[in-house]
Amino acid sequence: MRQANYSSLRAELVEFRRRVEQLQHGVVAHQLCRPVWARWLETAVLSGALEMPDFARSPARYRPVNWIPPRWDWVDPLKDIQAQVLAMEAGIVSRRKVVEATGYDVEEIDRENAADAARVAALGLHYRTSPGETQGARATPATRPDPGNGNGDGNGNGDDRDQGAAAADPATEELGVIS
């Protein structure tokens, strides 16, 4: 590996991951998980733990399962998240798929976000972002005037109002700055 660099290593890593994903879907999910799921479902129905009146006539109707292996992490998590946000914004991938790849349930996350937002509103709290809003992964922090000079002209002229930040998107404001 004398001639190896980041790009060549990354290309090999991508190829390795593709092969592992083939094994995950073709062997683990298809040959192991699917039969286990079918047997579990049949046992649950026969024991009465699940009520499915027409299961005997069409058991295949109840068997479809979407096997989602864990998502591979990349070297730079920030760029990985930014790429996922861009893919969602472009409509290439759904938010549901991005969340499922992390191993979480999108409905559960939505319920938690709604509960968090309701609690924040009820308590009158204000954060940089709220759950469900764009989290600013691609955002550039807003430029704010120097607090020592009032209007940012360098001369200390003008009033003490924050002149440019009021129109800025709150998701792009720098941490620790409260207006």
| Radius of gyration based on Cα positions | 25 Å
Give the low-pLDDT segments.
135-141, 152-179
Shape from CA axes?
flat
Please report the total strand number as a whole number.
Answer: 0
SS class: mainly alpha
- Average pLDDT figure: 75
Number of helices: 4
What portion of the residues fall into strands of 2 or more residues? Answer: under 5%
What's the multimeric state?
single chain
Q: Give the termini separation.
A: 54 Å
Number of structurally distinct domains: 3
Taking the sheet with the most strands, its summary is: none
Written as H for each helix and E for each strand, in order along the chain, the element string is HHHH
Percent range for helical residues? Answer: 40-55%
List keywords for this structure.
3 domains; about 180 residues; disordered C terminus; 4 helices
Task: Describe the fold and architecture.
This protein is mainly α and 179 residues long. It folds into 3 domains: 1-67, no CATH class; 70-131, no CATH class; 139-179, no CATH class. 45% of the residues lie in helices and 0% in strands. It has 4 helices and no strands. The chain has helices at 6-47, 77-89, 95-101, 106-123. The longest helix is centred in the N-terminal third of the chain and has 42 residues, at 6-47. The termini are far apart. The model is unreliable at 135-141 and 152-179 (pLDDT under 50).
